[in-house]
Amino acid sequence: MEERPNNAPEECVGPTSANAGKASSCEGCPNQKACSSGQQNSSTALHEQNIEHENIRKALDNVAHVVLVMSGKGGVGKSTVCCQLAHTLAARGYGVGVLDIDICGPSVAQMLGVSGREVHRSASGWTPVYSNGNLACMSVSFLLPEDNPDAAVVWRGPRKNGMIKQFLTETCWDEEGLDYLIIDTPPGTSDEHISTIQFLQGALGMRNNNPSDDDTEPNIGGAVVVTTPEEVSMADVRKELNFCIKTKLPVIGLVENMSSFQTPVKDLTFLRKTDNNTTDCTNEILNTIREKCPEILDTIASTEVFPSSGAGVMGMSNKFNVPYLGKLPLDKNLLRSCEEGKCFVQAYPDSVSVDPLNQIVDKIVNHLPL
């Protein structure tokens, strides 16, 4: 895609296009005058852009695959999927880095168990924080004041984009290389997404066209798109999928998160409603089951939390011709792992969501082999 201003209209032809500032989509754009002047096509501007892309290329030269975790909707568990994907890959022995570009709502540090830590800056750049020996993390949360970690990050688009560029160019990932760099993005299809994809495509495109480089395969693995099954969420996720199409970003697949709540019967709480009161009768019910039919205690109880709309997430997957990676049920142990910054599949190996998560990770690894 053409390098385009962050506040440009969706149909922007790009400032380096021959029609820059002249196309019908340029009408009313605040950048029309600058684009039509040709300054973006000047040798100086193009030289600066090439330097920028070259710096990113060098910073990512030892990264095998870049994976963006995205969703047009907030609150669907995108960061949960991102961090547990990273934890699980690291637990399998892969070298993993997580880059948190959700500038205004960073949560990756908490979920990876490294909140409150600091990054160190040297002449060569930022050293990321390590959750363990092969799982590294970079986030704006490490740069917040120590005395006020809850400070709001109130930044306009250009400053956020500048920070993302710094993350991409100045983070010194493991010298031995990363198998997967996973990027946690904010909801929507705005500045952070556009800038990140432009930076990556510009830089990695340069590498792919470099005849001296033996590796001719692009290492932008693509996007893992997360949604919940109700229409309110899927409506926004369809926009995200269309965004991927417009920006030529491959979609690795869709994850249907929180598709149901599943738990062993022995972990349920039972309530009895009498008149206007509700009382806890858990012990009574469980004792009865234990006496009459104890094998029920270890069976899994499941219920739909969010009503699936139409053909559901699988139907959306078929419509957009992208892989369906699977369902990830609501699981209190999964949520507890994120709160505690632990690897879910290691901390709770018998939990109901471990197999679904492992199957999703299997599909991503098969799609992006080393």
How would you describe what is shown here?
- The protein folds into two domains: 1-41, no CATH class; 56-259 and 321-367, Rossmann fold (3-Layer(aba) Sandwich).
- Strands 1, 2, 5, 6, 7, 8, 9, 12 and 13 form a nine-stranded mixed β-sheet that branches.
- Helices cover 36% and strands 21% of the residues.
- The protein contains twelve helices and 13 strands.
- A hairpin with a 2-residue loop joins strand 3 (120-122) and strand 4 (125-127).
- The longest helix has 18 residues, at 191-208.
- It is globular.
- Helix 2 packs across helix 5 (157-170), helix 2 (43-59) packs across helix 6 (191-208) and helix 7 runs parallel beside helix 9.
- By secondary structure, it is of the alpha/beta class.
- It has helices spanning 32-36, 43-59, 78-91, 108-111, 157-170, 191-208, 231-246, 282-292, 312-320, 332-340, 344-347, 354-367, and strands spanning 63-70, 96-100, 120-122, 125-127, 129-132, 135-139, 178-184, 220-227, 251-264, 271-274, 277-280, 300-303, 324-330.
- Residues 209-218 have low confidence and may be disordered.
Structural class, judged by helices and strands? alpha/beta
Total of DSSP H or I helical runs spanning 4+ residues: 12
Q: Strand share of the residues?
A: 15-25%
Question: Number of folding domains?
Answer: 2
Mean pLDDT: 85
* Name of the CATH superfamily of the largest domain: P-loop containing nucleotide triphosphate hydrolases
Work out the number of β strands: 13
CATH topology of the largest domain: Rossmann fold
Q: Choose one word for the global shape.
A: globular
Largest sheet: 9 strands, mixed
Q: What's the CATH class label of the largest domain?
A: Alpha Beta
Rg is 23 Å
The N- and C-terminal alpha carbons lie at a distance of 27 Å
* Helix amount: 25-40%
* SSE order: HHEHEHEEEEHEHEHEEEHEHEHHH
Secondary-structure arrangement, i.e. CATH architecture of the largest domain: 3-Layer(aba) Sandwich
Unreliable residue runs:
209-218
